[in-house]
Design brief:
Strand order of the largest sheet: 1-2-3-4-5-6-7
Oligomer: single chain
Radius of gyration: 17 Å
Strand content: 5-15%
EC number: 5.3.1.1
CATH class: Alpha Beta
Order of helices and strands: HEHEHEHHEHHEHEHEH
GO molecular function, one term: triose-phosphate isomerase activity
Largest sheet: 7 strands, parallel
Shape: globular
Distance between the termini: 28 Å
CATH topology: TIM Barrel
CATH superfamily: Aldolase class I
Bound molecules: 1,3-dihydroxyacetonephosphate
Pfam family, one: TIM
Subunit structure: Homodimer.
CATH architecture: Alpha-Beta Barrel
GO cellular component, one term: cytosol
């Protein structure tokens, strides 16, 4: 459904990708081959090669046509013990395999209510910068995903998103060789109804869509909102 619509109507200037679970990569690749939608994975191993049963390396993902790998999604951090340093190593592994890591950062509700949102984002970003360095950092995509807004139906407010994204851009100016090259996506209950407003916020360069991406027409509406928000 996505391919048909995107091929006919297009979304000029917007890069769209689907990040599918590992077992569906081959099937997705066959469907997407040569089309306008790019392919990504939802995770990647921090190890390039070796005996790590169950792990999927960046090279394997590249072989299956992936352009992107999400790293440090809050569910990976909270449920699978991925700490800030491991997220940095995964980002490095993705880059080494020629993939663009989509590095997720975001605060929990307790952290937001405790007034430490920007400090948490900085801590998570510092760990990535410590592994990548200023040059390689320019090759990532960042995604601000407040944990409390993911899958909850409750997106962050325009003000909250603006403050976090401005904070992340300021951090990039200090730590990244080419701070303007790094897109900052917002994720957390993005829907057709709120996409245009969220994409109008300064320093919001796109979205990382969960639930709404499973409904083709909703995802398409969000892609179009991103196209309409082009400067
Ligand atoms: O985690 C997300 C995308 O990775 C966001 O999920 P929702 O859009 O369902 O809140």
């Amino acid at each position: 459904a996505l391919l048909g619509e995107l091929a006919s109507s297009g979304v000029a200037g917007v890069e769209c990708a689907v990040c599918v679970p590992y077992p569906y990569l081959a099937q997705a690749r066959a469907l997407l081959d040569g089309g306008v939608l790019m392919l990504g994975a939802q995770d990647v191993s921090e190890y390039a090669v070796g005996a790590y049963t169950g792990e999927v390396s960046g090279a394997m993902l590249a072989e299956f046509g992936c352009r992107y790998a999400i790293v440090g999604h809050s569910e990976r951090r909270a449920l699978f013990g991925e700490d800030d340093a491991a997220v940095g190593r995964k980002a490095a592994a993705a880059l080494a395999a020629g993939l663009t890591p989509i590095v997720c950062v975001g605060e929990t509700l307790a952290e937001r209510e405790g007034g430490v949102t920007l400090a948490v984002l900085e801590r998570q970003l510092d760990a990535v910068a410590a592994v990548l360095g200023r040059e390689a950092l320019a090759g990532v995509v960042l995604a601000y995903e407040p944990v409390w807004a993911i899958g909850s139906g409750r997106s962050a407010s325009i003000g909250q998103v603006g403050e976090a994204h401005a904070g992340i851009r300021a951090w990039l100016r200090e730590h990244c060789a080419r701070p303007a090259d790094v897109p900052i996506l917002y994720g957390g209950s993005v829907k057709p109804e709120n996409a245009a407003e969220l994409f109008s916020v300064d320093e919001v360069d796109g979205g990382l869509i969960g639930g709404a991406s499973l409904v083709a027409n909703d995802f398409l509406a969000i892609c179009r909102a991103a196209a309409d928000a082009q400067p």
